[in-house]
Amino acid sequence: MVWMNCLRDLELFICATSAVTRPTSHAQQGLDGAALVHRAVALRHLLERQRDMIGVRLTEAFRFVVVGAPSYLEAHGTPQRPEDLLQHECLTFRSETTGSLYAWELERGRRTWRVPVRGGVVVNDGLFCMALAELGLGLAYVFEPLAKDAIRAGRLRSVLEPYAPTVPGLFLYYPSRSRSSTPLRTFIETLREQPALSSRKSSESRRLHG
């Protein structure tokens, strides 16, 4: 495959984060690009601060949702408000940078919640978290495209729908000095051709802050 060949000459760090300083740090380390999922506020600060970065949109905006297996919800009930999550077994994430557990972020209108959920299982991978949720081991907080098939098949149910937050989507950021990198251009073009990412073909690379 073409993209596999280009990866032999390309150093790419893929990271899901809301931190606004990581793109610059990766560039300083000589990396060609960093794929990041940003909350809206983090993306805005990134646009304001990272003058040397070029961004390419890879996906449409999407939501984060709370999901649970039908068996779990039948046994423990369905949360109706964000505060109800404190009474549930939740599959939590631990930050690799701070070591703290991730608080689930929810929103409705102008109000936002950061719920310090707890549970007996801590994970650091979305697919593994969702697989455990399908087994009925607890509620999970995942991005909706990842859970779409499981929800459609009935293996998971989305709860707290009115509180599901929307994020700008998945972007690829790279320092402007890498613009001429043939492996990087090939990688970006190949990503855009993927079915899951090709719905926004009109998106173009853009210099952040020119």
Describe this structure in words.
By secondary structure, this protein is α+β, with helices and mostly antiparallel strands. It folds into two domains: 2-61 and 168-207, no CATH class; 62-166, D-Maltodextrin-Binding Protein, domain 2 (3-Layer(aba) Sandwich). 29% of the residues lie in helices and 24% in strands. The protein has seven helices and 13 strands. The chain has helices spanning 2-7, 22-28, 40-49, 70-76, 126-134, 144-153, 182-193, and strands at residues 12-14, 33-37, 53-57, 62-68, 92-93, 104-108, 111-115, 122-123, 140-143, 157-159, 166-167, 170-175, 206-207. It has a five-stranded mixed beta sheet with strand order 1-2-12-3-13, covered by helices on one side. Strands 4, 9, 10 and 11 form a four-stranded antiparallel beta sheet that branches. A two-stranded parallel ribbon has the order 5-8. The longest helix has 12 residues, at 182-193. It starts with a helix and ends with a strand. Residues 12-48 and 198-210 have low confidence and may be disordered.
